[in-house]
């Protein structure tokens, strides 16, 4: 064994390491504090930029809702349905399919097989681009599907038109997600944060131009959404090809080999994440059947929008967790992976509690950002306490999912999500909403 000083700026103590570089057992408070500090620094060096980048990417959808909400309640509800049902369906599926790279690239990078990273990314591009054509009918036939699911005709018609207009954004995800995972596995995350920030500012600018200068309405919002999504995808690819020389060695025919094994892992990853994301989509559809559906859907969408901002931060922590776990397992450091999980779960819970306090304090005011309708604002304030509790409950689960992705245990988590969300959660929501008459509060 040997003792190794901590990182610069850490407390003045030492930590015992094993010969293979893994942590030794933490037997004292000083050693626990040392592990906590080291893992905090390592995790946030990855999670900070990734979380910021994903929040910026999510911000393109959130800002779109904010701008459209100031056009009218019908427009807000329609765009919310399109983005929260059709858009979330595809976002969850594509992100899940791309998450297989977190396992493969993370473990390959940890094991020193850097030459395989570019091959894995190209393989994922092929699979995700093919997946886009499977999802495409949901966009093309969005209007009849939404009507079949019981949405009001006026909302379903406008949502269907918006869904068709954002088809280009779907194909951008097939490029964006694998490229992100490729860079995340190498901890090259700062560039992702910068791309996300610049494109979010760009998106706000073209939204204002298209909606309030050109007066293009929801059509302008859809065009702005498409343009911004492709700017993100192309900027990431440009960085990989021209500046990421370690993992990228050009296009390779190896990307077409062993695709079926890659597809199986991708599907497991997609099911794990989609069962969670689609649950939120299902709740929006259930709310659309309530009385005064415009206010019900709009108020829930505002709450889910804010919950989504927190969720994007935790998706960043999820990605960091999968990188840490997969890299450490690839290096043969199981104790380092375990300690990283403990530290991250504790910090995630604290963040969730802080978010809950912020929501409760501002419950009568935050809806003004999204809508000028006083009725909508009152409905949102009524849901604020439940929103705060939801933020706490959602703070730890993404971390556990990140551990599962890093370890390659996606199938097990998919079964757990299936039982919790669909066997228990949705039926309970239906009973409370319609039988107990709790309405949107479920």
TrEMBL record:
Bilayer-crossing regions: 76-95, 125-146, 158-179, 191-214, 221-242, 262-281, 293-319, 339-362, 383-406, 412-434
Keywords, in A-Z order: Membrane, Transmembrane, Transmembrane helix, Transport
GO BP, one annotated term: xenobiotic detoxification by transmembrane export across the plasma membrane
Origin superkingdom: Eukaryota
Subcellular location: Membrane
UniProt keyword annotation of Membrane present: yes
Membrane topology recorded in Swiss-Prot or TrEMBL: Multi-pass membrane protein
Molecular function terms, GO-annotated: antiporter activity; xenobiotic transmembrane transporter activity
Any single Gene Ontology cellular-component annotation: membrane
Leader sequence residues: none
Family designation: Belongs to the multi antimicrobial extrusion (MATE) (TC 2.A.66.1) family.
Matching PANTHER family: MULTIDRUG RESISTANCE PROTEIN
Protein name: Detoxifying efflux carrier 35 isoform 4
């Amino acid at each position: 064994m040997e003792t190794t000083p901590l990182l610069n700026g850490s407390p003045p103590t030492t930590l015992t390491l094993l010969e293979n570089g893994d942590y030794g057992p933490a037997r004292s408070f000083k050693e626990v504090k040392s592990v906590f500090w080291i893992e905090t620094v390592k995790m946030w060096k990855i999670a900070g930029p990734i979380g910021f980048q994903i929040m910026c990417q999510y911000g393109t959808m959130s800002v779109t809702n904010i701008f459209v909400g100031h056009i009218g309640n019908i427009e807000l509800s329609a765009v919310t349905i399109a983005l929260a049902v059709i858009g979330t369906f595809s976002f969850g599926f594509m992100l899940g399919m791309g998450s297989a790279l977190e396992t493969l690239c993370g473990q390959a990078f940890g094991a020193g097989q850097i030459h395989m990273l570019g091959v894995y990314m190209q393989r994922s591009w092929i699979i995700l681009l093919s997946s886009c054509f499977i999802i495409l009918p949901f966009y093309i036939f969005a209007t009849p599907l939404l009507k079949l699911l019981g949405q009001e005709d006026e909302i379903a018609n406008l949502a269907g038109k918006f869904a068709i207009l954002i088809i280009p954004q779907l194909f951008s995800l097939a490029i964006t997600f694998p490229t992100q995972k490729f860079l995340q596995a190498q901890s090259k995350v700062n560039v992702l944060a910068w791309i996300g920030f610049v494109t979010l500012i760009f998106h706000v600018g073209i939204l204002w131009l298209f909606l309030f200068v050109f007066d293009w309405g929801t059509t302008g919002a859809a065009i702005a959404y498409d343009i911004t999504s492709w700017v993100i995808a192309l900027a990431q690819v440009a960085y990989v090809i021209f500046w990421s020389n370690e993992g990228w060695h050009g296009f390779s025919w190896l990307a077409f080999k062993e695709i079926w094994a890659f597809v199986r892992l991708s599907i497991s990853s997609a099911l794990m994440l989609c069962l969670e994301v689609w649950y939120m989509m299902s709740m929006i559809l259930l709310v659309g059947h309530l009385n005064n559906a415009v206010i019900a859907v709009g108020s829930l969408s505002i709450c889910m929008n804010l919950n989504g901002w927190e969720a994007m931060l935790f998706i960043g922590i999820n990605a960091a967790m999968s990188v840490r776990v997969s890299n450490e397992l690839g290096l043969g450091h199981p104790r380092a992976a375990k300690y990283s999980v403990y530290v991250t779960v504790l910090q995630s819970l604290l963040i969730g509690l802080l978010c809950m306090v912020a929501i409760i304090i501002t419950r009568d005011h935050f809806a003004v950002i999204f809508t000028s309708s006083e009725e909508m604002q009152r409905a949102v304030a009524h849901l604020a306490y439940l929103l705060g509790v939801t933020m706490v409950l959602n703070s730890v689960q993404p971390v556990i999912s990140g551990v599962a992705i890093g370890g390659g245990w996606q199938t097990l988590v998919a079964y757990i999500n299936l039982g919790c969300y669909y066997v228990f959660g949705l039926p309970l929501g239906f009973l409370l909403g319609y039988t107990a008459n709790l309405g949107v509060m479920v």
